[in-house]
């Protein structure tokens, strides 16, 4: 069993130059961009009402350019954009796989931000635009060019927010939260070449019919709670793994503790209900929330001490089989449960989750037939 994303991250980090400074990288981009915006806008004087329209027009144009470059250069391999394709699809999408969207160290900013020199090139292009437009109207030229750079900075900032850890306060801000969801869906391998290319505002995804939204259902109210996510690679097809893990009456085969299930047999569809006994949680009442055959299975449960939890199983195809991702979100409404969770329960759940996936990988490869 191999953790492919973790291995790629380790290799990528090992190749980062030892003198790389994440604060210097991000700080230069923001400071240089802000200074250029100020210089452009300083050339605007006595702006007439209609001239202010240059700003929204520039933002719309930049948003369209963001969409087109992301879609046609970041996800389609061309000779003239091979470096961009490698950095984006090759590095960024391998470093941040679906279900592993958060950066872990500041050095990881290198694979989130564009290279520092790119904003210099972009500023020079904006300078050219300013010169052309200034032949007709100085104010429009200044406002339009400055707004173009503002769009670039908005991209860098919001994209970084979309890779923040789930528990970060900014992650719960309304617009950031929506765009994080769209970007997370974009990082799913079956969607990344076809959907959700806008980063700041999904206007052109909507216009071109590439906007894809998948509600998070019951996970929405668990935003501020504990989130555990673990991965394991299994040398079986996604369909096999999905059918196996979405059948609760077989959970006892791969749970590292005694489990008893009362409910329907087979892979359960959305709307199904079953009862669970076992592990540290004791008695749990489960309801299946959402199902994407062969890809995702999600269910919620309630237990004692005000325990509410949502578990999501994601099956993603790999070269050798399936990357199985288990995401557990939970909270305790009762103060006794919250206190116990802070003292020792969370640590034990983390240990159980690691053991659970390790056992799943071993058992699944033993009980599921190998299909060449």
UniProtKB/TrEMBL annotation:
Parts of the chain that traverse the membrane: 20-44, 50-69, 111-133
Keywords: Membrane, Transmembrane, Transmembrane helix
InterPro entries: Fatty_acid_hydroxylase, Polyketide_cyclase/dehydratase, START-like_dom_sf
Source species of the chain: Pseudomonas turukhanskensis
Gene Ontology MF: a single term: oxidoreductase activity
Gene3D superfamilies: 3.30.530.20
Keyword Membrane on entry: yes
GO biological process terms held by the UniProt record: lipid biosynthetic process
Domain Fatty acid hydroxylase positions: 57-210
Protein name: Fatty acid hydroxylase domain-containing protein
């Amino acid at each position: 069993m191999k953790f492919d994303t973790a291995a790629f991250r380790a290799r990528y980090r090992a190749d980062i130059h030892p003198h790389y400074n994440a604060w210097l990288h991000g700080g230069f981009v923001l400071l240089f961009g802000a200074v250029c915006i100020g210089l452009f806008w300083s050339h605007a004087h006595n702006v007439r009402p209609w001239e202010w329209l240059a700003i929204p027009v520039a933002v719309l144009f930049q948003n369209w350019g963001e969409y087109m470059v992301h879609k046609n250069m970041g996800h389609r391999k061309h000779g003239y954009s091979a470096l961009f394709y490698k950095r984006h699809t090759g590095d960024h999408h391998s470093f941040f796989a679906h279900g592993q969207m958060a950066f872990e160290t500041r050095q990881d900013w290198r694979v989130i931000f564009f290279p520092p020199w790119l904003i210099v090139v972009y500023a020079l292009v904006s300078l050219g635009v300013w010169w052309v437009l200034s032949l007709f109207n100085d104010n429009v030229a200044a406002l339009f060019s400055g707004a173009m750079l503002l769009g670039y900075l908005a991209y860098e900032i919001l994209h970084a927010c979309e890779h923040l850890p789930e528990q970060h306060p900014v992650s719960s801000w309304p617009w950031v939260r929506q765009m994080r969801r769209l970007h997370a869906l974009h990082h799913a391998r079956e969607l990344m070449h076809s959907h959700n290319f806008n980063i700041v505002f999904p206007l052109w995804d909507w216009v071109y019919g590439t906007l894809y939204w998948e509600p998070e259902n019951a996970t929405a109210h668990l935003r501020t709670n504990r989130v555990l996510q673990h991965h394991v690679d299994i040398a079986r097809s996604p369909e096999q793994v999905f059918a196996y893990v979405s059948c609760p009456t077989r959970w006892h085969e791969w749970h590292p503790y005694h489990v008893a299930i009362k409910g329907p047999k087979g892979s359960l569809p959305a709307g199904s209900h079953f009862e669970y006994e076992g592990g540290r949680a004791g008695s749990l009442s489960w309801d299946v929330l959402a199902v994407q055959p062969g890809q995702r299975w999600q269910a919620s449960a309630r237990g004692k001490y005000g325990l509410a939890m949502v578990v999501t199983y994601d099956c993603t195809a790999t070269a050798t089989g399936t990357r199985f991702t288990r995401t557990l979100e939970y909270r305790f409404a009762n103060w006794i449960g919250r206190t116990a969770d802070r003292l020792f329960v969370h640590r034990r759940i983390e240990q159980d989750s690691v053991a659970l996936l390790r056992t799943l990988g071993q058992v699944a490869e033993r009980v599921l037939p190998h299909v060449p």
